[in-house]
Amino acid sequence: MIISNFTPFLSFLGGLLIGLSVVIFFVFNGRLIGISGIASNFLTSKDNRFSNLLFLIGLIIGPIVYKIFSQEEINISISNSFYLLAVAGLLVGVGTRIGGGCTSGHGISGVGRFSLRSIVATVTFMIVGILTVLVKNLI
What average pLDDT score do residues 35-58 get? Predict the structure, then answer.
């Protein structure tokens, strides 16, 4: 197996930008970044609704801005049924509520704070993801 798209410098730079965005978000909002928590708070709470909306809009606009400046085509294809994806999305939402956060919240904000709960959650996410890929490739 040859890895043709290994970009350590750009990966390192991307990680630094993600870490910096977590710090900036915390300094200006006093809250940690977790996409499911922000989406949930936007839908259910009147507190910080505008900043939550701006964050969610940024998630949508970010790839569009990247496409404009990079002139690269971003191909997205959905290979399963819409209903299956909707059910999967709801299950992920329920799982993030039960687990007290999502992969971004635990993996970026929690691990950076050395939260044992977040470290265990992130290791669990990674193990289950790896096992899922292995099982899918065996079938």
Answer: 87
